[in-house]
Amino acid sequence: MRDLFTIALIWSTVRLHALILAALGGLFSERSGIINIALEGKMLAGAFTAAAVTYAARFQTASWRGKSLGRLLAGMSAGIFIAAIYAIVCIRYKADQVVSGTAINILMFGLPAFFERALFLSSGSTRKSREIG
């Protein structure tokens, strides 16, 4: 019984926490009658925005590690912005929920890579170990 709750189990639970929250959001939206296909796009928008704000904040302040609330709010606001776009397209313009959700997912798979290349001069992939040295 002692080997049941290990550090590896706790870390895997923390890693999967975001996926569980997205699945719960999809469950609640499905129960309300909305087919929310755009959950992955919202997660990508929030993750990229939080990472970009973290990268930009480390050059602005000396104690950038203690300012996690701003990065959290930036990621949440990006997800809310994408959700608002999804809601406007589906409710006001009466677009199909599956098609607009798929379009948001496709957009959010490409848009962070584009912004990463434009803002940070990065290709989106890490260098091989022999190129680092």
Features:
mainly alpha, globular, disordered C terminus, about 130 residues
Helical run tally: 5
Helix and strand run: HHHHH
Q: Which range best describes the helical content: under 10%, 10-25%, 25-40%, 40-55%, 55-70% or over 70%?
A: over 70%
Unreliably modeled segments? 129-133
Largest sheet: none
Instruction: Output the structural class.
Output: mainly alpha
Rg, Cα atoms, Å: 18 Å
Gist?
The chain is an all-alpha fold. The protein is 75% helix and 0% strand.
Written overview of the protein:
The protein is mostly helical and 133 residues long. Helix content is 75%, strand content 0%. The chain starts with 6 loop residues before the first helix and ends with a helix. The relative contact order is 0.12. The C terminus is likely disordered.
Q: Helices, strands, pairings?
A:
Elements: H1 7-31, H2 39-60, H3 68-92, H4 97-120, H5 129-132
Helix pairs in contact: 2-3, 2-4, 3-4
